[in-house]
Amino acid sequence: MAKKVLVLGEVREGELRNVSYEAIAAAKEISDGGEIVGLLCGESVSGIAENMIHYGADRVLVAENDQLKTYTTDGYNQAVMQVIDQESPEGIVIGHTAMGKDLSPRIAAKLQSGLISDITGIEKVGEQIIYTRPIYSGKAFEKKLITDGLLFVTIRPNNISALEKDESRKGDVAKVDVTIKDIRTIVKEIVRKTTDGVDLSEAKVIVAGGRGVKTKDGFDPLNQLADVLGAAVGASRGACDADYCDYSLQIGQTGKVVTPDLYIACGISGAIQHLAGMSNSKIIVAINKDPEANIFNVADYGIVGDLFDVVPKLTEEFKKVLV
Amino acid sequence: MNIYVILKRTFDTEEKIAIENGKISEDGVEFIINPYDEYAVEEAIKLRDDHGGEVTVVTVGEEESDKQLRTALAMGADKAVLIDDEDVEDGDQYSTAKILAAYFEDKEVDIILGGNVAIDGASGQVGPRLAELLDMPHVTTITKLEISDRTATIERDVEGDLEVIETTLPVLVTAQQGLNDPRYPSLPGIMKAKKKPLEELELDDLNLDEDDVEGKTRTLEIFLPPEKQAGKVLEGELDDQVKELVSLLRTEAKVI
Lengths: 323, 256
Fold this sequence. Notes:
The complex is a heterodimer of chains A (about 325) and B (about 260). With about 325 residues, chain A is of the alpha/beta class. In chain A, about 25% of the residues lie in helices and about 30% in strands. Chain A folds into 2 domains: about 170 residues, HUPs (Rossmann fold), CATH 3.40.50.620; about 120 residues, Rossmann fold, CATH 3.40.50.1220. In chain A, the strands form 4 sheets. Chain A has a 7-stranded parallel sheet with strand order 7-11-6-1-4-5-12, sandwiched between helices. Chain A has a 5-stranded parallel sheet with strand order 15-14-16-17-18. In chain A, strand 14, helix 5 and strand 15 form a beta-alpha-beta unit. Chain B is about 25% helix and about 30% strand. In chain B, strands 11-10-9-12-8-1-6-7-13 form a 9-stranded mixed sheet, with helices on both faces. In chain B, helix 3 packs across helix 4. The longest helix of chain B has 17 residues. Chain B is globular. Chains A and B meet through helix 4, strand 7, strand 9, strand 10 and strand 13 of A and helix 3, helix 4, strand 9, strand 10 and strand 11 of B.
């Protein structure tokens, strides 16, 4: 049965995040031929609304309000709830990002609905839609279905492919008036700590360092490699605990779970908690002095050697071939 | 201050996962307080030491969760509550949040702390859902918390960036790594914990019926990911290995 599905897009630095396009593709699966309605919230976001159409949305609603300039739970909650009341969608798809994680459960609670978070796959079995999601940080997976309420999911970035961009697609972009009042959590300041804007959870390539980087400066060669590859930099708990880098870089069972196309582990031994966070990456490269290191058991390609010898050479080689 | 912590019993992070009869096997598994909830317990104890009041730790789960509650009491919490949900069919985050909301209904609350995610189910839903049901603001993934009078100044981690938030009590917050270093229970702490109150509640005690809290989702199947095969360790001169690796990533793996 065709269902109307709402996709909440997410804007970062004036662009739609890739996960929002992936969310449209997920919504297509869920909608079974029904209408896909995109929603964008912000101060001035109508300029990018068409992108959602090009990636598969049938029409887009734009909720513009100066109270929505930065994300706040209350502001976005009110805007999205007003649109839900107006549109009565049967499904909702949001990216499993900082925003999606913060907002979706709150909306699900208000709607007394089920919500399946962090899905990595969708399949149809007869009339049922079944969602796959990792549990125990990817040590296992579960298949779930929603038995009551909206078909409401958040999707993990990088797992569901976006549809091909089609600039000939046309659709209606309409402004929607939302009333925002009483925001109880005020954002006083945002301190940007991520330098180049490549976010770990959405990165296609990740260069990660472990205890083997030895010092804060030890991340320099990793940063240089990441620059050449347009990669994000991550770390093992060992490197974070030793204060070589910020905890926000941590990948593992505590920390982020990532699934990039390419994961380059430098000086990481491969503790089970770290493997839980990255072993579902498509291709894993391990660089480690210790040939017995556990990381080689999950790596597709390995180089036994000191990362301070290997990584700079790798950077040079990539520079040569990627020009 | 009336300080509450919601926590969950989880597998130790060291544990491997095995499946038996379609379920995750708990045979010989060590359990811990979910690591993110442990940050919440620590922060709650610090708040109480600074501002006075009482820390109550609450869990929804099976009877065996009393061990994790005792650990929290040994760390320094004052009281514990275990709400038994074993009769709930297909319990999910909807169920847990609704049970907790029923518990909190008649409580005077200044702050509720929890982890931002549990390392087992990892939905991260229960905190924000509970805040909504209690009509309370929430702040997720916090790394710093300061309270002065009724104002909370909070730092939160947003995908690596830092956001400074101001809000007023009561509030629900969820902990991110970096908030603090949880203490280990001391021996006197462990002795004292044995005498601290641990209340056990059933759904009946909260005027809830099993049907009221039946989940909205159902798990059909649990499976393990295909075991990753160890790949190719390159050999020869380092310069050649590096060339070979770059070429393999481009032509064989096609990821660059």
